[in-house]
């Protein structure tokens, strides 16, 4: 049985809907515009059944179909007129996700997942209309008894384009993630190109800070502050970039 979507999203209580508003703030702490809105509807068991997201006057709706073990077996993405833009079919083997088939007006994309003898994901392959165009490899390590995961992404050139390093705490939760962008034109030991992004989580497993370092070693630091409701779910999240409030996220949560 899959963990509920409420658990995956670090939410507490029996939630019916979450409406989230991402707002951009100018240098005078005045609302500049709304970046996006997102609404998620859950059933009484805690699984998402519908999601509606609006960004720059474009609305996308997602509907989920699940099997008796609550695995998603089909996801439909539709526009504001309910026209289907993307169909995603999920296939499992002994509860293990093996293949996702994505179908849209451009054809079919196949995502295949491969595991080791310990059931750990080691490779993810994407192909479109029979031709592979991206590959992701996973490696697992330990440092001082704590787990570290390396995720390396390769695209059509077959050269490394991105590396994601995740460090876990004693509760096996991610507490630090580093994103490295590489020059994928060079096959061996490509130099880092563009920014490095370091993301840290707090004791509640929520985003606490982000540091972006560009190719010229100039860094920008973002800290995150929260306000919680009586169920200990956050309802306001403020992003301060270099001590200036830049983004405000407001949630309205309805409970059963």
Describe the structure.
The radius of gyration is 20 Å and the shape is globular. Strand 17 and strand 18 form a beta hairpin. The mean pLDDT is 91. With 256 residues, it is mostly beta strands.
Label the overall shape: globular
| Helix/sheet category | mainly beta
Model regions low in confidence, pLDDT < 50 over at least 5 residues = none
Strand content bin: over 45%
What helical percentage do the residues reach?
A: under 10%
Mean pLDDT: 91
What Rg do the Cα atoms give?
20 Å
Distance between the amino and carboxyl termini? 23 Å
Can you give me a brief rundown of this structure?
This protein has one helix at 5-8, and strands at residues 15-25, 31-42, 48-55, 58-66, 72-78, 84-93, 96-104, 107-115, 121-128, 131-143, 146-154, 160-168, 174-182, 192-201, 207-213, 219-228, 234-241, 244-255. The protein is mainly beta and 256 residues long.
SSE layout and pairings?
Blueprint: H1 5-8, E1 15-25, E2 31-42, E3 48-55, E4 58-66, E5 72-78, E6 84-93, E7 96-104, E8 107-115, E9 121-128, E10 131-143, E11 146-154, E12 160-168, E13 174-182, E14 192-201, E15 207-213, E16 219-228, E17 234-241, E18 244-255
Antiparallel strand pairs: 1-2, 1-18, 2-3, 3-4, 4-5, 5-6, 6-7, 7-8, 8-9, 9-10, 10-11, 11-12, 12-13, 13-14, 14-15, 15-16, 16-17, 17-18
Features:
256 residues, mainly beta, 18-stranded antiparallel β-barrel, globular
